[in-house]
């Protein structure tokens, strides 16, 4: 059955109304250096809000006849959508949330790619410049709110979770909302949607009218994790590394629900940063939580972390099982500690400038067969570098699972090969197998999972 489509002319919703001729031409440009393909890809993902898919390549192929065109107007611009998914409309009118998200995509792509890579203070090869760039993108999106007290809880977890896990994440969000806390997630389904949905109920009960449901994504992942409709502040960062830094710079604490390789990537990124000596005294509450049935899952994660990074890394988080009230109470107390520290250090509430992030966590990693095979996965290096390289390994698997470019790499040359110290790789392989067994690699119903990776040990010959 062919999905119904619609043609429409759409006006901006609050985010962006005026573009220069240069910006318009770049968005129309279908060449390698143009932005048309990137904008079309992200726009299609937004229009598929509510559709359960986690395969960016399949999404693009299913809507090969979709097109988006900029129509300049005397007072700004409109978007002409050709063969857009009909479920994004009601009675011929685009849903307001989707319209907001569509123009957020336009705003962020235009802004990110309008800043020259060599711009003073915003260079992409300079650690301080990268942080400044992230700040500028977030400020341009009006995410940074001066004067607002710390209240933003980042929630990480899988897009492919079962109904019980979803309901638990929703109840945690409810308890956070009852305490006036706001939510920031990767903006997609599953454990990213549950806390937001629960928080809306908690906020309604407490008559919180300025509750925030921030979604942070990036072009490579948005097709697999389309923004859920509860997101009221959507930001598209240039790449996964800047997305991760945006999470920890703007958020005041992190809750981790059960997930797959994407969640493992986020955990390794966060712990690698918190292990830096300069961050030793910096309050940053981190809670791993799930239902009683998830206790073994978090034991596995905890053991993997202790084996790879040591007991100090494990001291950076607390595991709370089947107790949403305690999770929310822990976060609420953590917000007070963050506020006290930031006030004493005269650091901004809205952006964590003091957090030290090693450049190895900032520079973009492009997963290819060569770069994945070259990862230094051994113990003869500082612990934060172990975390950084494991993070890259997980990032490559995510790309091979759901990102259009990664899927094409794997289809063309076979699974990414991951090699290194057996003491690191054996627990890694065991954990990945458990993710597969628990259906955490792909959405249920999307067919049998075909691994995008291959673990190489001394006894396993590499593919020619």
From TrEMBL:
Name listed for the protein in its UniProt record: AMP nucleosidase
Alphabetized Pfam families for the sequence: DUF4478 (PF14793), Lysine_decarbox (PF03641), PpnN_C (PF11892)
Pyrimidine/purine nucleotide 5'-monophosphate nucleosidase N-terminal domain sequence ranges: 9-112
Residue span, Pyrimidine/purine nucleotide 5'-monophosphate nucleosidase C-terminal domain: 335-456
GO cellular component: cytosol
Molecular-function annotations in GO: AMP nucleosidase activity
EC class (word): hydrolase
EC number: 3.2.2.4
Reactions the enzyme catalyzes: AMP + H2O = D-ribose 5-phosphate + adenine
Organism of provenance: Marinobacter algicola DG893
Matching InterPro entries: LOG_fam, LOG_family_nucleotidases, PpnN, PpnN-like_sf, PpnN_C, PpnN_N
